[in-house]
Amino acid sequence: SAKLSPEKLLCQLRDRVNVTMIQRSDGPFGTSEWHQYLPGKSLSETVGHLGRCAVVSSAGSLKSSRLGQEIDSHDAVLRFNGAPVRGFQDDVGQKTTIRLVNSQLVTVEEQQFLREPLYNTGILIVWDPAPYHAEIHEWYRKPDYNFFESYKAYRSTHPEQPFYILNPKMQWQLWDILQENSLEHIQPNPPSSGMLGIVIMMTLCDEVDVYEFLPSKRQTDICHYYQKFHDHACTMGAYHPLLFEKNLVKHMNQGTDEDIYTHGKVTLPGFRKVHC
Ligand code: NCC
Q1: Is 61's C-beta closer than 6 angstroms to any atom of ligand 1?
Q2: Assuming Cys at both sites, which of 103, 119, 201, 273 could form a disulfide with 128, CB separation 3.0 to 4.6 Å?
Q3: ipTM of the complex model
Q4: 144-181, pLDDT tens digit by residue?
Q5: CA of residue 193 to ligand 1 center, whole Å
Q6: Is 213 exposed, middle or buried (0-12, 13-18, 19+ CB in 10 A)?
Q7: E strands in 96-201
């Protein structure tokens, strides 16, 4: 039910969604205290120019997919939250270049987050649901989860590991495009980590392969490939507008329906390759 052509939609995403990380110049982060915590280099400086990238959803349908080698053949791999690789390499690969985590994990599961070696690989990015188009000051005073202390604690113990805070502007710029391209009203909740990660990789890479965001023939109610927990809402969405995100991604897919069915794979162009 998307209204724009795939080409126009890609241009809208490229031109209206500002993927930036919190910097020292962002209002409340301009203090000398924050100065010692925020990474000095920008994300694009840290990762460099990336060619082919993979985004690996955490869906249960990755189980028994044997996609590991294919995923690892990419220049960079993005994973989400606590999604493990150890013990699951055959299905999800072992490379982790970027891990996008939500602020709930960093706060509610703080002890695990600070201790689990899983988080010590690659570049970390944390995001927090902000009020609709809120100013950065307003969000800073009232984040959805107050993850700032946990972020600082992690930075103190792992000063060499790049760890960014996603600028919350992005989530609503993306949500607006989701809403404009859907016939129904979407609940005003931010996009899922999955959708945010896809757009982050589109800004960094020439081409992005997304695995099991659109479910393959292995579609299942098992929520995650790493847990025995069943919930239909994991694939369809409850809080996040996941169904609308999936429709949008399907609409922009440059790969084949066959690739979705057999590999759960969607191919999207990086914004550098989009000509408007
Ligand atoms: O489950 P979650 O998501 O960590 O999954 C990461 C992304 O993978 C895609 N996904 C996942 C499962 C599935 N069956 N199909 C999928 O397409 C989604 O795009 C999803 O975003 C999140 O988005 O951050 C989320 O985080 C969890 C949870 O907070 C973390 O795993 C940390 O424990 C949320 N679950 C709960 O709060 C119970 C989930 O709603 C969203």
Answers
A1: no
A2: 103
A3: 0.99
A4: 999 999 999 999 999 999 999 999 999 999 999 999 99
A5: 7
A6: buried
A7: 98-102, 123-127, 163-165
